[in-house]
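Milestone 3.1: sequence recovery, worked example.
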């Protein structure tokens, strides 16, 4: 019997992210996609969206082959992944502008994965900030101003294009980040 879609995605994510650590703190990277997936499950999203959440960073941050992922998880998951994967061939600012536009044009599933990802990232950031203070901004290539520009631009796009309780949570976190020195 073949494992279900979520199980296959979880196995891919666990294998692909093995040994990776999050930059906000010394914990295994796999916790991040697990948190994103659980958040979306709690909000009632279907298995395609939850599976996409589990592997949303795999193509961008690991050597896992896109063709292998497509064969294992299918077209619907890959359509969401395509909307939420950064194009690392671009400059930081162009990459973030493109990300916002691909999510804007993406499905509800893509918006859900992107929003849950941003919520999880913001929560991690705020926890790390409480421990490290303003020095944490140095861990981000773009620095404080550009990171906040991106979070605010992402929030504005989501508020224009999608209505969901996740946006309320994201807005509160962005407001908290904006208030940090």
């Amino acid at each position: 019997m073949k494992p279900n879609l979520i199980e296959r995605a979880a196995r891919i994510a666990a294998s692909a992210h093995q040994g990776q650590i999050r930059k906000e703190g010394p914990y295994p990277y796999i916790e991040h996609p697990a948190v994103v997936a659980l958040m979306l499950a709690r909000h009632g999203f279907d298995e395609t969206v939850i599976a996409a959440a589990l592997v949303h960073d795999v193509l961008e941050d690991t050597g896992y082959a896109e063709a292998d992922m497509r064969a294992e998880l299918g077209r619907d998951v890959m359509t969401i992944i395509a909307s939420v994967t950064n194009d690392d061939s671009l400059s930081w600012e162009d990459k973030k502008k493109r990300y916002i536009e691909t999510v804007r044009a993406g499905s509800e599933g893509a918006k859900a994965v992107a929003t849950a990802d941003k919520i999880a990232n913001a929560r991690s950031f705020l926890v790390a900030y409480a421990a490290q203070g303003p020095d944490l901004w140095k861990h981000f290539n773009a620095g404080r101003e550009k990171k906040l520009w991106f979070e605010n631009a992402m929030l504005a796009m989501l508020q224009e294009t999608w209505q969901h309780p996740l946006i309320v949570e994201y807005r509160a976190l962005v407001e908290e980040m904006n208030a940090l020195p």
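The two ends are 54 Å apart (CA to CA). The mean pLDDT is 95.
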